[in-house]
Each structure stands twice: as structure tokens, then as C-alpha cells.
């Protein structure tokens, strides 16, 4: 399994997930750069993602929804802040109200940094989400963000091998 470490820190308001992949940085980058590949791994297997918009450039927007087994759709977005291809990008990640992708202010928004670094066996990915408050961090922890993110990230190995 790629996920090797998960830490949440209420003092720094962060959730950090570390994963190791047996593929070069450029290949792992392509998972995020290509919306069709990202759809195959974003979200837990029971809630596949559909990216409606995918603009991985500074100032770009990525709108998507996940579909439950019952057909219910959960909308979200990424507002891309920085991109350093192929090693990192930062974005604001939030929940959306509906297919308009307007921000749902009742749920937390996080600032995320995704970093990819070469290792002797492939790539180490470090995913850091920072929340505005300890309450916001706890809210997403209670919603199952660790389990859902780990399931999603652990799907990347199969995609990289194909």
C-alpha cells in the first residue's frame, strides 16, 4: 500500500499523508495533470470522481463531483494557487453546494500542498492540508477524510502499473 504515514496536528491545523510509489516523479505527476487518470483514483473506490473542469495552472479551477453507490453526487472544487511541474502544486480545496460549484460555507475549506520527490525506488508524495481552525480539522476527521484519502491514494499504484 502506498500510504506509509498519516498525521494530524491540531496545533498546526494540518493533516499530512505520506505515500511512496514505485514510479518516477514524472509518471506520478501525470496522475494529477490528466483529468481522466485523476478520476480513476480521486475519492474512495465506492465514490468515483468526475472532473467537469480541470485546469492545473496557477489561478486555474478544478471542479468535480463524487458519486455514491446510490447515485448521490457530492460536489467540490480546487482553486489552484501554484504549480511547479512536476514536483508540487498548491490549491484551496472545498466542498461545493451543487453543480454550480459555489462554495459550501458550512463545510471547511483547506489549503493543500502536494509535493513529489524522487526516492531510490520511485517517488515519495507528501500531501499536507491546512485548515483555518482546530474545529475545521476535527470536522473533516469526523467525516472520514483519513480513511477516504487513504483509500483514494492507495488506488494510485494500480493506475501506475497499467
UniProtKB/TrEMBL annotation:
Under the heading Pfam families, the entry gives: AHSA1
Domain Activator of Hsp90 ATPase homologue 1/2-like C-terminal residues, every copy? 23-160
CDD domains annotated for this entry?
A: SRPBCC_CalC_Aha1-like
SUPFAM superfamilies, per database record: Bet v1-like (SSF55961)
Family affiliation: Belongs to the AHA1 family.
Protein's organism: Nocardioides flavus (ex Wang et al. 2016)
Q: What is this protein called?
A: Activator of HSP90 ATPase
Where does the UniProt annotation place the signal sequence? Answer: none
**Annotated InterPro entries:** ASHA1/2-like_C (IPR013538), START-like_dom_sf (IPR023393)
Domain of life of the source: Bacteria
